[in-house]
Amino acid sequence: MHTSHHLRQILTAAGICILFSGSHVMAKDMSPAFAVTLDMQGTRYASHQAATPQHAQQEIKLRQQVILQKDGQFRSVSESVWPGNIRFQFLTTGNKDGAAAIDLLKWRQGIEIAREDATEARKEYADLLFLSPALLLQQASAMMPAESTDMGNEKYQQLNFQDAAGRPASMMLERSSGQVLSAKSAALTYEYANYSRVKDYAQPAQITVKNAGKLVLQWKISTEVAEHVDAHTFDLPAGYVEKQDKGALRATMIAPGTYRVDGSESGYHTAFSVGSHSVAIYDAPVSAAEAAKVKALIEQTAPGRKLDYLVLSHSHRDHIAGAPSYIQDGLHILAGKDGRLAIERQLGQTVASKVQEVTSVLDIDLGGRSIHIHPIASSHASDMLVAYDKSTQTLFQGDLFYLPEIGPIPPVFDVGLELESLITQHQLQVQQLVGVHGRSGTFTEFKKALELRMTEKPAAEKN
Ligand SMILES: [Zn+2]
Question: Could you give the residue range(s) of every CATH 2.50.20 domain in the chain?
Fold first, then answer.
């Protein structure tokens, strides 16, 4: 255990110009506003979100721009493209006192601002610092005394420290170069490669992120540094509103015998149809705990009816994770083609044994109410199911059409066109479309979203 002396040598070798005076650390060449901008392109290996049930993982293309200021101010814009060409684009900006995130495409989160308190904001900043080992090392040394472990090895040195949110972390340094080779946060391991220097700042052009040894992310990074960035860089754009209270967990009747669950903790909507003897439930988000509460609500809303069918729109984790809470004698779980495979992989044999795969249109009878289940080989998930109640002209779907809770109608993604052709092909008369995400929409709103796609192509497609 040698601390400051060894660390000073390493930091000096790292060229980050830190002067120690006692426990006080000063940066010679970096002003408090010193900022690094990372333009990142990468791949995320996402579990349980694949386009087909046969695959456990899906490669997701990512772009991210991160601005990290030494004083804890940060901004990140991240973009990802998921199966079905569903795009996310979020902006997060914050400092030590708090952070805010908005949806730049205004569909998933609409125009609502998601606020984070100081604790969460510091964690977010701390996580982002792992993308800049030079700033990470500087932050670690500022939290002196850091503990340096002699590896009994002349080449490497391990440094144990607390990250910017006060969580235990460590890094591995190469003595000769002073470069950080890897770092370990509370959850993840970062491996740094292809260092280059921008002025005095050393940045790896490649970062590999692993979770318990398993590859989760790969980044290619180009870097700019600046003594100052315009303070307005960290502003939120106009046109966004504070998040609205969604109220307590409740079943909202949207048509006779037809309910949507509102006010869940995750914000996801389960829906259900009630007949004279049984109930069909659409999707089981997002955890067993949340689904247990929703199940109790359904039983309360439809007393004496049998929970007969759980219809899973597709086998992505967030839509099915609550299924174990519905397991009881006589329950049928309806899933699309090969859905059982993905369900067994994620939730085990007990849940999988209840699964019946739907490969052609199936009518289920709830007693005076019949529901049609339509399989659709969607580009988002090949095991997609859409449910349709002819008596109320209500269509239930997950991830094919989105309206935000609050905000204007966004253009549909590719999957919206797939839903439109299903509706056309089966000549379904639709009054209302109920989604797992966001508010329910009328058929007119769906048509509007289809039109917007024709007229408002994303910037990338205009070029
Ligand atoms: Zn999905």
Answer: 4-45+59-80+93-102+112-234
What pLDDT does residue 141 have? 85
What is the CA(436)–ligand 1 centre distance, in A?
10
- In this structure, the number of other CB atoms found within 10 A of the CB of residue 399 comes to 25
The pocket of ion ligand 1, defined by CB under 5 A, consists of 316, 399
Report phi then psi at 325, rounded to 5.
-70, -15
Largest alpha-carbon pair distance within the chain?
A: 81
Calculate ∠ Cα 192-77-262, nearest 5°.
120
CATH tag for 4-45+59-80+93-102+112-234 (out of 1.10.260, 1.20.1260, 2.50.20, 2.60.40): 2.50.20
pTM attached to this predicted model? 0.88
Ligand 1 centroid from CA 63, angstroms: 20
For ligand 1, the distance from its centroid to the CA atom of residue 415, given in whole angstroms, is 11
Residue ranges, CATH 3.60.15.10, the chain: 244-462
CA distance 84 to 81: 8
- pLDDT one-digit tens code per residue, 6-46: 555 555 444 443 433 333 333 344 666 789 999 999 999 99
- Tens-digit pLDDT profile for residues 398-426: 999 999 999 999 999 999 999 999 999 99
Q: Tell how far the Cα of 82 is from the centroid of ligand 1, in angstroms.
A: 9
Give the distance (Å) from ligand 1 centre to CA of residue 400. Answer: 9
pLDDT digits (tens, 9 = 90+) for 37-77: 999 999 999 999 999 999 999 999 999 999 999 999 999 99
Distance 86 CA to ligand 1 centre (A): 9
**Spacing, Cα 317 to ligand 1 middle (Å):** 8
**Domain 244-462 top-level CATH class:** alpha beta
